[in-house]
Every structure is written in C-alpha cells, then in structure tokens.
Design goal:
six-stranded mixed sheet, FAD/NAD(P)-binding domain, binds flavin-adenine dinucleotide, 21 strands, D-Amino Acid Oxidase, Chain A, domain 2, five-stranded antiparallel sheet, about 30% strand, alpha+beta, about 400 residues, 10 helices, globular, 2 domains
C-alpha cells in the first residue's frame, strides 16, 4: 500500500519552513500553519543572520552540527537566493577576545587531515586590517565559507514549492488522535480581521497522520498546554539587534561579517539603502519582545570591544533616536544548547515530531535538522553520528 504522505507543520519560521521543504522535496504534501498572517513572524523575522560554525578545538557536538548545517543552508542559498541581495558569502571573522574567566584554548592552524581544514583558519593580517584591527598576538579566526543571510528571503524560498500550503492566522489550540482513523485532529483558532470592526475568530480543523511541532519559543507552552507534557527544559532567550543605514557613516566598515562578542555586519542592501546590524543581546529566561535603550547601550558597548573602529564610526548614529533602529525576538534554547529533533514519544504520541530549540544558530542548522526530521518520519536511519542523534533527542521522560 502507498504510504500516506500528508503532514501538518505547526509554525512558519525557519524550522517549520525547512521541515516542510525537506518533506515536499520527498513527495509529501505539507500544510504549514501559523498564528501570524505571514511566515517569519517570530525569531525567524530577525532582519539578518550570520551563518558560521561554532569553532571548538575539541570539535564538540555543536561544532559538528554547525559545520555540517552551514553546508546545507549555503547550498540552498546558492540555488534559490540572489547573492549580494538575499545573502552574501563574505566570509566571517571570528574574534577570540581575551576572557580571563574563561581562557580560550589556543587554535592550531588546521592541517589537510583536520576536520577544520577549509572551514576555520587563523585570521590573516589583511583580514584584521580590513576590520580596523592589528594582528599582534591575534588568536582571531577566519571562516572563509561564512556568510550573512536574510531569513525572510530564505523562508519564502523554502516555502515556495507546489506541495506546500502556508495557512496564516491559524493558531493550533488543541490536538488529539482520532480513534477511528488514527490521524491527528487539530482544532484551530482561525483569526479574522474585519475592517472597522477589529478582530474576531472562528474555529476550523485540519487532520493528518504526521505532525511536526516547529513552534520556536512557544514550544514549552505548546508542550504544557496542548499536549500536557513537560517542557524538556526548553527556555526563552530574548535578543535585541541594533541597526541603522550607512547614510552618515564616513569611515569604512568591515566588508565581511564579524562574530565573537555579539556580531556585526555592514554593507547589507535594503530597500532604503545599505544597512549595518549589531548585536544581539542575550537575555536568558526572558521572553520579552520589547526593545529598550539599555539593550542598545549593551550592543554599543560590546561593539566597542569587538570592533573599536566601527563603534567609533557609528558613535553619532547610536545617539540619534531617528537613525538607530531595533529589532527584538526570542530564541528557544535547550539545556545542552543543541536543537531538539525527532519523535516526541513513539508510543503515546505516535506521528508527532518536533524541530525546536534552535537557539542562536537556527539559520545555520535548521535545514540539516529538517532533513533529520524527514528521515525519521520516513523511518530512515539518521545520517548524524550516534552521539549527536542522542544529544538532540526529544526526551519527554527524563525532562
Ligand atoms: C536576535 C536574534 C538574532 C539571531 N541571530 C542569528 C544568527 O546570526 N545566526 C543564526 O544562525 N541564528 C540566529 N538566530 C536564531 C534563529 O533566528 C532562530 O534559531 C530561528 O529563527 C528559530 O526558528 P523557529 O522556526 O524555531 O522559531 P520561530 O521563528 O520563532 O517560529 C515559530 C513559529 O511558530 C508559530 N507558532 C507558535 N505556536 C503556534 C501555534 N500554537 N499555532 C500556530 N503557530 C504557532 C509562531 O507564530 C512562529 O511564527 C537569532 C535569533 C534572534 C532572536
């Protein structure tokens, strides 16, 4: 008998869009539901992100995942996005600022046999100089394959597939398995906006044998309130990006993305001219989406350490209410800092999968993790190592 290849994905951010695409490319028919009218309404609405790997001399699990993940994201970008407009493979300079509390292990220049070869090198004098830095005793790193990317363009391209239907204003309120069909039935609050009368809602339902939860920072609430399950230690981390246009900036800004103490990216084309982005703040257990002057000040102070010349060049703009802009979003993170990927509970919740807790690196890892989710839904073995698969498991029992 032909397999029933219908799936509903709850959440229209990068996690949901990537899962939908991974399944649609394998012949599945996928509905993506989101409370918001359009995709990228929450964390994935960050105006710009950096795609790079987490460099660790001992090549920990996050390094392995991000190194493989960025290959997926960049391969998709090369094929479906406009280079220079939606993304740019500028390379990423990763600053390793001295931290007396947590001294960093020295980085050895990788040999051809090293997993880091072609991924991470010691930064050269010309790269440091282009960022306004000097090369004395520098332990800064250069990621030649690193890039910046616009998440909205990425998500739109992922959703652009004949087998994917995006349904905005569809908030999933409850779900249960039909004893008759064995399918999941979702009760959906369909928000409606009526001109001059405000907003209202009706209720609809959708059914499918397979469900993927891709609900970002709302995942703990969804687990608790919809599935009556523990939240697996998932927690919110609020972040504010400070950004502005290049309009009154006369000093040169780095021609590539810079990471390491917050991040900084300039020369990004927008409808209003070139823009720069700095941040983001990192407020654990905070789910606020309110922007604040304190967060702007924090981003400015960190930029002063990350890139003193760029901070100096932007000093006047940072003091201007009209020229400094903010964007705030909430990441979802897990205790071990790795995404949560796969089935929730194959007995009690058969057919329900999850891709969440993408933390601060969702743009880098979501497309690869979505392939893992699709493999698991299709009953295929994961291509990830056993250690990584185990660390990413959705462990409701031991939460
Ligand atoms: C400030 C900031 C900067 C970042 N910078 C980078 C970066 O430089 N590089 C990088 O790789 N990553 C970065 N990230 C991380 C990345 O943006 C996130 O990991 C990623 O966007 C999370 O995607 P998601 O799809 O899991 O969640 P979200 O984008 O939050 O999407 C979840 C969606 O689920 C919907 N939803 C929730 N509950 C329901 C429900 N009951 N019914 C229907 N819909 C529902 C929500 O409306 C939302 O649209 C950054 C994040 C932030 C906040």
């Amino acid at each position: 008998m032909e397999a029933d290849k219908r799936c509903i994905v709850i959440g229209g951010g990068i996690a949901g869009a990537a899962c939908a695409r991974a399944l649609a490319d394998r012949g599945w028919h996928v509905k993506v539901l989101d409370t918001a009218p359009e995709p990228c309404a929450a964390a994935s609405g960050v105006p710009l992100g950096v795609v790079s790997c987490h460099a660790s001399p001992d090549d920990n699990l996050l390094s392995q995942l991000t190194r493989a993940g960025m290959q997926y994201t960049l391969a998709f970008a090369r094929k479906h996005l406009i280079e220079g407009q939606d993304w740019s493979p500028t390379g990423v300079l990763e600053r390793r600022l001295a931290d007396t509390d947590h001294p960093k292990k020295p980085w050895q220049e990788p040999t051809a046999e090293s997993v880091w070869f072609s991924h991470v090198q010691l930064a050269k004098a010309e790269q440091l100089s282009a960022a306004g830095l000097n090369s004395d005793n520098s332990q800064d790193l250069w990621q030649p394959q690193g890039a910046w990317i616009k998440p909205l363009a990425l998500v739109r391209a992922l959703l652009s597939h004949d087998n994917i239907q995006f349904l905005g204003l569809h908030e999933v309120e409850s779900m249960q398995k039909s004893p008759a069909t064995g399918e999941w039935q979702l009760r959906i609050k369909h928000h409606i906006s009526i001109p001059s009368m405000g907003s209202s809602h009706t209720y609809t339902s959708e059914t499918a044998p397979h469900i993927v939860l891709a609900t970002g920072a709302q995942t703990p609430d969804f687990l608790n309130q919809v599935l009556y399950e523990p939240h697996m230690g998932l927690h919110p981390i609020s972040g504010q990006v400070s950004w502005g246009l290049h309009t009154h900036v006369h000093e040169p800004l780095p021609p590539f993305a810079v990471n390491g103490h917050g991040s900084f990216v300039a020369h990004v084309p927008t409808a209003n001219g070139k823009a720069w982005y700095s941040g983001a703040t990192f407020e654990r257990n905070n789910a606020s989406t309110m922007h604040s002057v304190q967060a702007h000040a924090h981003n400015q102070q960190r930029l002063t350490q990350l890139l003193p010349q760029a901070a100096q060049a932007l000093h006047a703009q940072w003091s201007s209410n009209s020229e400094l802009h903010a964007w705030v979003g909430v990441r979802c993170a897990s205790v071990n800092r790795l995404p949560k990927v796969g089935p929730l509970d194959e007995k009690r919740l058969a057919g329900v999968h999850m891709l969440s807790a993408l933390g601060s690196r969702g743009l880098t890892t979501a497309l690869l993790c979505a392939e893992y989710v699709a493999d698991q839904i299709e009953g295929r073995p994961l291509t990830a190592s056993e250690a990584l698969s185990k660390a990413m498991q959705c462990d409701l029992e031991n939460a």
